Q: What sequence folds into this?
């Protein structure tokens, strides 16, 4: 200490230097956080594995949900219960900035169309979509599922094209699973008047 009771010059300079650097680090941290916020790195989407529901998160905290509605959600939950059971789990499927989260959501919606033929095909599509999301977070390429045979109806539901059995991509997909779909004809589960 000096005779006047103050700190020596070196201590004052060190304290000023330390305070300056702490302020600089604080400002840099805030700037990095703001940049991340602007590019969407702190906000992302997650999809639920057994239903295809979508939710949006900010720093890991969910703040908005987009639920799959109608019979399609019930169909996917039923397919998720086939052996082995798909456990309900939320998987990250893209940031808000890259806007790719709608692709896994749409693929889960399209999976519903296959239930009119066989729930096992719905399950194949769900399983492959889940594996694709785990591998890529839904950001790269497309899910390895036969979406060429699925069309969206005017009411927002999904249905199979009438000639889906002759679609080469569908045949290749089912062959890769070692699966032969049931023969063409009326579906006893969905027949009018069936119990």
A:
């Amino acid at each position: 200490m000096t005779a006047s009771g103050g700190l020596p010059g070196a201590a004052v300079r060190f304290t000023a230097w330390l305070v300056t650097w702490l302020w600089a680090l604080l400002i840099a941290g805030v700037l990095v956080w703001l940049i991340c916020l602007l590019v969407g790195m702190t906000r992302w989407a997650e999809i639920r594995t057994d239903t295809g529901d979508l939710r949006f998160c900010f720093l890991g905290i969910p703040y908005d949900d987009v639920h799959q509605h109608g019979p399609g959600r019930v169909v996917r939950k039923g397919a998720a219960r086939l052996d082995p059971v798909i456990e309900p789990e939320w998987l990250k499927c893209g940031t808000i900035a890259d806007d790719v989260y709608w692709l896994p959501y749409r693929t889960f919606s399209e999976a519903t169309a296959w239930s009119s033929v066989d729930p096992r095909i719905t399950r194949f599509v769900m399983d492959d979509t889940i594996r694709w999301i785990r591998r890529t977070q839904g950001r790269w390429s497309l899910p390895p599922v036969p979406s060429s045979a699925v069309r969206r109806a005017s009411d927002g539901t999904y249905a199979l094209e009438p000639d889906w059995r002759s679609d080469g991509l569908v045949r290749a997909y089912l062959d890769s699973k070692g699966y032969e779909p049931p023969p063409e004809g009326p579906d006893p589960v969905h027949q009018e008047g069936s119990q």
About this structure: The CA atoms of residues 131 and 143 lie 9 Å apart.
